[in-house]
Amino acid sequence: MAGKRTAGLTITVTVFGLLAVAVLGWRLLVASDPSGAAAAPTVPASRTPEGKAAPPDRAAPEPAADSEQNPPEQEAQDPPAQEHAPVPALYLGDSLAMENQLVLTDLLKKTATVRNAPYSGTTLCDYLERGQDRLLVPPQHTAAALVREVKPAVVVLQFWGNSWGYTPCMGSIVQGSEAYYKRYAADIRALTAEIERAAADAGIARPTIIWVLQGPDPMSPDRIRRVNGLYEKQAAAAGDLTADAGAAVSRAGDRYTHVQRLPCTPYEREHPEYCTDGDSTRLHRDDDYLHFCLAPTTQTPRPCPKRSPGILRYSKAIADAVADHVREARTAR
């Protein structure tokens, strides 16, 4: 009898252990997805980037009256003022672009008039016109369609590299596999080519593409290193640029190790709402490894409604890259 009880106890412990591992694995899988797919389902094609039903030509969302994401003190973070009118720009991307779009727009207001069209859960192929697959972006918001409409001087592309069950255009490709990198590189080239053709169709000079380099992936550090390498290779080959926003949310000298907190910058010390934890600043919520918004994730994708140090750091790096390019382009004329 004692032997049977011992065997039964062993089986019970084993079952509960396997269940615990399965639950933990699922939570880490969801946490490693910057689209917030578990809490924010795919945005239907008939919706705007912020997830609200609206006509196709609706402009980027305005911050709510009680929103904290564009505080007055961010003026100190603006790129240097330009004597010229702001240039037209496009900002396309996934949920990281979704959450920081208004902060970036505010930082660039003296440099660029930004048209935002991010969609949570997307990847590069979602913005391609050529795709026959089901896309998460409506036809009027593909990169080429927006280039023909907006006629931008700069196109900023923010993509983490999603390839999951809710990015249909990636098919069944496993994220981080060799097939994934091959397909991702092909989509980088295809998106660049479509932007070039759309600019020619619109009768404008080819816009400069700025690829945003991503921050550390706690689940797969080498994946982000390789994705960033693909962006850098394409930018070098096509005469485009990169913005290393990921370095702004990484430890100095340790670019690809994930961290939840970093020492406060001088600006954050001067503004305690950004220096969240004494001498350190919180980049991520405890329940979200990758997003930088410190407000809870909602069912409807939205710009971040809360002042968040990670968003400010990330957006500032992108804004600086855009402002530097615009300044250099004007000087070269």
TrEMBL record:
Biased composition annotated in UniProt, kind: Low complexity: 53-85
Annotated GO MF terms: hydrolase activity
UniProt-annotated stretches for the region Disordered: 37-85
UniProt KW keywords: Hydrolase
InterPro entries the record matches: SGNH_hydro_sf
Gene3D superfamilies: SGNH hydrolase
Top-rank taxon: Bacteria
The name this protein goes by in its record: SGNH/GDSL hydrolase family protein
Source organism: Streptomyces mesophilus
